[in-house]
Design brief:
- One of its GO terms (biological process) is polyketide metabolic process.
- This is SnoaL-like domain-containing protein.
- This protein is α+β, with helices and mostly antiparallel strands.
- The protein has two domains: 106 residues, Nuclear Transport Factor 2, Chain: A (Roll); 113 residues, Nuclear Transport Factor 2, Chain: A.
- Helices cover 25% and strands 36% of the residues.
- A five-stranded mixed β-sheet has the order 1-5-4-3-2.
- The chain is globular and about 50 Å long.
């Protein structure tokens, strides 16, 4: 396990598992830069958030990918509302191994999905570690050319036509499944579009693309892809509406 991954998991265990406000001083940088809509910059807002976590709160870590000084956690927050929240949390660590910057996106967990797959199930550990850079390049090109550029004629250059497991709750498996979901969204007056890619985080066969787009309004889009033999074979996502106001001046991205 990489130092970045183990550090983030230890920090999450103490902050969100033990609900220990004093852990903020161990794991969070003094100049902590926040992009989440849930807290402001620095240690104190996070300390208050941890101290105020409800009795039934629980953070379930599903998978983690580490890329240099950055780690992305795909998990579920329980006990924070009427339904659990599926989340991506991204942390950048400083040279001292403390979290220096944080981004996230959250969406309600749904019991029923079109594909029959949950929003988080599937493989949890990165494999094909020697293919990290090749997979990063493939997914980055796909994101720029297809998601942002809108060149849907190139879909089969990047996505497997044999197997593509879908975890978006409104889409069935395969290329046709997502195309049908996109058509339905367009009919509902909320066509999905991607405007700009902000970060690409990769470890082995897992590649996370953080971008901004439109889906009935401005959204933060976190798309996680699993790549096998040079093609995308699995997809998870969280799309979160961009709030009108944030408790800081850093933006969501």
């Amino acid at each position: 396990m990489s130092d970045t991954k183990s550090t983030v998991l230890k920090a999450a265990a103490e902050l969100l598992g033990d609900k220990d406000p004093s852990a903020v001083d161990r794991w969070i940088a003094v100049d902590y830069k926040q992009h989440s809509p849930t807290a402001g910059d620095g240690r104190e807002p996070l300390r208050q958030l941890v101290a105020g976590l409800p009795e039934g709160f629980r953070h379930e870590v599903v998978r983690v990918i580490a890329d240099g000084d950055t780690a992305a956690v795909h998990g579920i927050y329980h006990g924070v509302g009427p339904v659990p929240l599926v989340a991506f949390d991204v942390f950048r660590l400083n040279a001292d191994g403390q979290a220096a910057e944080h981004w996230d996106a959250l969406a309600p967990q749904l019991e029923n999905t079109v594909s029959g797959r949950s929003q988080t199930d599937g493989p949890t550990e990165p494999t094909d570690l020697d293919r990290t850079e090749a997979n990063r390049a493939l997914v980055t090109e796909f994101a720029e050319k297809v998601l942002v550029g809108g060149d849907h004629s190139a879909l089969t250059d990047y996505i497997s036509t044999e197997t593509c497991h879908q975890h978006n709750p409104e889409a069935a498996d395969g290329l046709d499944g997502f195309a049908a979901a996109a058509a339905k969204w367009a009919e509902q007056g909320k066509p999905l579009s991607h405007k700009k890619v902000h970060q690409v985080i990769a470890e082995g066969d897992l590649v996370l693309v953080m971008s901004e787009g439109e889906f009935g309004g401005p959204v933060a889009c976190y798309n996680l892809f699993r790549v096998s033999d040079g093609k995308i074979v699995e997809h998870w996502d969280v799309m979160m509406p961009v709030p009108a106001e944030l408790p800081h001046d850093n933006g969501l991205f």
